[in-house]
Amino acid sequence: MSKTEFELLKIMFGNEFDFEVKKFIDLMIDFKFEQVLSDEFIFKYFANFEADKLNTSFECRIIGICALQTFVKQNWLCSQVFVSEKFIQHCDRIFDSNQILFENDEIICSETAVKYPCLLNAALKCFKQKWNCSLADIMWYSRSLITNQMILAEPSSRLYEELKLAALRFDDFINDFDAHENFELKLCLMQCCAEFSQFFLWFKDIQNADKYLKKAISLSEVSVQLIGNLGKRTKFQSKPTSLLTVDVKRNNIRTFDVVKSDLSSKMPTNIELNDDTLLKNIEFLDLKADLPQICPEEEGVLLASVAFSLKGGPYGDELIKEEALAFLEYIIHNTSTWSLKYKALYLRSLLETETKKIERTMMQLNELVDSYKDASQDINKLNLFYCAFLEPIWIIEKNFADCLRSLGCIKSALDIYMKLNLWESIVQCYQQLDRKDKAEAIIREQLKIRKTPYLLCLLGDITQDLSFYEEAWNLSNKKNSRSQRSIGDYYFDRKEYEKCINHYELSLELNSMQLNTWQHLGFASLETNNYILSAKSYRRFLQFEYDCFEAWNNLAKAYVKMNDKPRAWKTLQEALKCNYEEWRVWENYLLVSIDVGAFDDVINAWHRLIDLKGKHQDDDVAEILVKVACNEISIKSDDFQIEKLGEKLQKLFGRLAANGLCNSKLWLLYAKLLLYRREDIDKIRDQMMPVAAKAIDCAILRRSAGRDKSPIPAITSACWKQTIEGAQKKMVFGPAGCFQIGCSREGTNLSPTFTNDL
């Protein structure tokens, strides 16, 4: 048992253990949890045990810890545990086997894979009654909650809310411990914060995950950063390039009892890269060999940081992936903790599924499955297990099957899905093979064995028959969110948005953690002009999926329709943070910015649109900008500076003119801006005249192309009149028409006024 886990036990039971407590503590330190559960002392306690009147006695806590750890050993680490039949009978007598694990429509991810669910039930019941008595009680209760969630097929709003309550109580305790100088206690708190960060990250609660990760980092005494170092990545590379590598700095010099020798045979195998081009590992020219040592708990915080960057950062960001891979390689090659190395290898495999390293990914995932089952790896696999946040073996196997399926190995993937009874994945495989008949036959066969709402919903997905969803809804006593969601999806796919809204709302009342359903509800409400519901739905969705620019954009549209343009403007800024390259969002941002008077942002958005599209034209927006710059529209703002706006607007017009993006109106507006901003008569004449001439040229060209039916004299007269009116405000002309403007388009010199049509 690690020092941090021992610290938790001391917090829970006190520093001085009596004889009975010490006996069980010693067994737990040696990871002999099953032996504790078989002790006669525990059975005597069970004899007087009343589930509804649990207390904080050490027996109850010990049962909870040992039951949870035994459940994890069996279902995560594939250690063949022996649980006495007597203990199971006591659990069945005291606890309802489905009371805690499954509420409403919650179902187990893989029923064939989960062994001894009574152990998890016992742990949850033991921790739940007095979970807030100490920091250790909170942590073990939170661990049991997330373990419960990991075996469920879908996120549970019930478990999420309970986890948030535990986190709030945890905050109260950790504030009291901050001033302590005990390094072991500091490591314990750091590990607990990293665990909470991982727990919330699983629910995609980025805000809370970030909060606890920052707290863990603040408790750490190390700084781990990426630096550039010259090295070679490929076998044929002659010139080294700058590549990412990890640099570690310690605030306080410490030494740790970390034994790394003779562990290779007991640790998960790192499959080496076998590629014709890429080297097995990056070869750096000058790499530090004496990096400061970091302890396993600090490695756990680093791993939590990597997991957060991958799940909390922009999806598909290549730079984030490269940085994550550098950190993962550091952990893989330096850690002596089984769980941390396992998780680092797993995360690396997920990152490499879309690269040319896919072959290594396949082999690595297969190796990870074998590592769970490998009895020779008798190293303590539970050390930092919750900090590493390992997935259960059936999820690893499912990801391996998903990888096979993506490569076209459908038969091999199906074999794994069938072994795990992953019916939804089985249906998807047969649909991919265009064998819906086979998928339907398999589900109907399972329904003959046992009729469940889940299987009925799958049959409805295959046949697109609404009656199966209705049957599932009735079978569940109207508690099955999946059936209502499926009915909503049925209407949504057919663009019958009015019909799908009620079904989505019913589904979300039962389980509010269905993020895609929130997104669909937001869009359907937007299409049916229910803007308040749309805004509510998108806000809920973005609370967890904050990097979805489409959702931010649609939320802004809802605010615009609600006439809340300042809020829409801020919302579009969030959309641009998520996707800086989407021209449609920039166009919306430009229009909303002009409405809220953010004129600098209008000009910046216009420049960005030219960068993305090569052109952009909006005469109405340009006219408003010029009127503001010419002080024809008064702006009531202390921060507004008309001179700076004029400078920026002139640069924008200059760019439009240089790239041939001005029409006649934009040329006239450009001339008007120049006339207003110039005090020198000669400069006005030199700059305004060519601009006015361009305005007339564009107007005549527009008529020649058939887009304007006005006669040429009327066009030129109108252009000239606007120019003269602007010029008269700046300088005095002679009699009207004392000079002429050349118009090469028609091959003649045109005077400012005409009396006849051409």
TrEMBL record:
The TPR repeat boundaries are 481-514, 549-582
Q: Which UniProt keywords apply?
A: Repeat, TPR repeat
> What InterPro entries does the database record attribute to this sequence?
TPR-like_helical_dom_sf, TPR_rpt, TTC27/Emw1
**Family note:** Belongs to the TTC27 family.
Q: Which named protein is this?
A: Tetratricopeptide repeat protein 27-like protein
Recall the taxonomic lineage recorded for the source organism.
Eukaryota, Metazoa, Ecdysozoa, Arthropoda, Chelicerata
